[in-house]
Amino acid sequence: MVGGGKMTRERWVAKARATLRLLESKLEEVREIDPANRELIHYLEENIVKVKEFLRSLGEDV
């Protein structure tokens, strides 16, 4: 982060939500374009779960 400032909880939540939207979008895209790519689909699904767990750990509804 510029200036060496500490990231606030709100910033962590915003970044995690943006990451979640991106991962979900990519998962949908891969399922449409290359549904046989099970390895990539699995990778994206695992990371979606991890981001959701992180958000829940911050007390956010997912």
Order of helices and strands: HH
Unreliable segments of 5+ consecutive residues: none
- Tell me the β content: under 5%
Largest sheet: none
> Which radius of gyration do the C-alpha atoms yield?
14 Å
Q: Regarding quaternary structure, how should these chains be classified?
A: single chain
Give the number of domains: 1
Please count the beta strands (DSSP E, at least 2 residues each).
Answer: 0
Which class best fits the helix and strand makeup?
mainly alpha
Helical stretch tally: 2
Overall shape? elongated
Describe this structure in words.
This protein has 62 residues and is mainly alpha-helical. It has one domain. The chain has two helices and no strands. It has helices at 9-33, 38-57. It is elongated. The mean pLDDT is 94.
Give a short summary of the structure.
This protein has two helices and no strands. The chain is mainly alpha-helical and 62 residues long. The chain has one domain (10-57).
Structural topology:
Elements: H1 9-33, H2 38-57
Helix pairs in contact: 1-2
Q: What are its keywords?
A:
62 residues, mainly alpha, 2 helices
